[in-house]
């Protein structure tokens, strides 16, 4: 830090300049405003959770029947801050994959034994 009165180089912790004995003002620019950060975080979180456009679209859900497309729709909806639609697409893709896998195993079992 440099003293504004005598331009001497001094420590940033000094309250008084050791060279010219003038009092120094410490700027509070570097202090973090925790309340402001928490306020902004809560505002963004509420916008994320309470998005009025976040209604699962039937077209998106039908497309999400295939797991890779469902994962892609999940990511796109998260980027657009639509968590409900994202979860609906992911669940649709996963459930369809499990149901098709179960049907395949059941069909293979029936075909092999009969």
Question: What key attributes describe this structure?
Answer:
58% helix, 114 residues, single chain, mainly alpha
Question: Describe it for me?
Answer:
The structure is a single chain. The chain has helices spanning 34-49, 58-63, 67-79, 83-113. 11% of the residues are buried. It has 114 residues and is an all-alpha fold. The longest helix is centred in the last third of the chain and has 31 residues, at 83-113.
Short description:
By secondary structure, the protein is mainly α.
Global outline: rod-shaped
Classify the helix fraction into a percent range: 55-70%
What is the terminal separation in angstroms? 88 Å
> Which range does the strand content fall in?
under 5%
Q: Measured on Cα atoms, how large is the radius of gyration?
A: 30 Å
Which runs of at least 5 residues are low in confidence (pLDDT < 50)?
A: none
How is the main sheet built?
A: none
Secondary structure: number of strands: 0
Order of helices and strands: HHHH
Q: Number of helical runs?
A: 4
Structural class, by secondary structure, is mainly alpha
* Average pLDDT taken over every residue: 80
């Amino acid at each position: 830090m440099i003293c504004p009165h005598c331009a001497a180089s001094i420590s940033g912790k000094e309250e008084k300049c050791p060279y010219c004995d003038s009092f120094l003002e410490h700027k509070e620019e570097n202090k973090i405003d925790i309340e402001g950060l928490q306020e902004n975080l809560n505002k963004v979180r509420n916008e994320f959770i309470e998005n009025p456009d976040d209604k699962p679209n039937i077209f998106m859900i039908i497309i999400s029947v295939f797991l890779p497309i469902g994962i892609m729709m999940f990511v796109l909806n998260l980027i657009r801050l639509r968590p409900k639609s994202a979860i609906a697409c992911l669940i649709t893709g996963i459930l369809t994959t499990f149901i098709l896998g179960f049907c395949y195993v059941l069909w293979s079992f029936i075909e092999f034994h009969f």
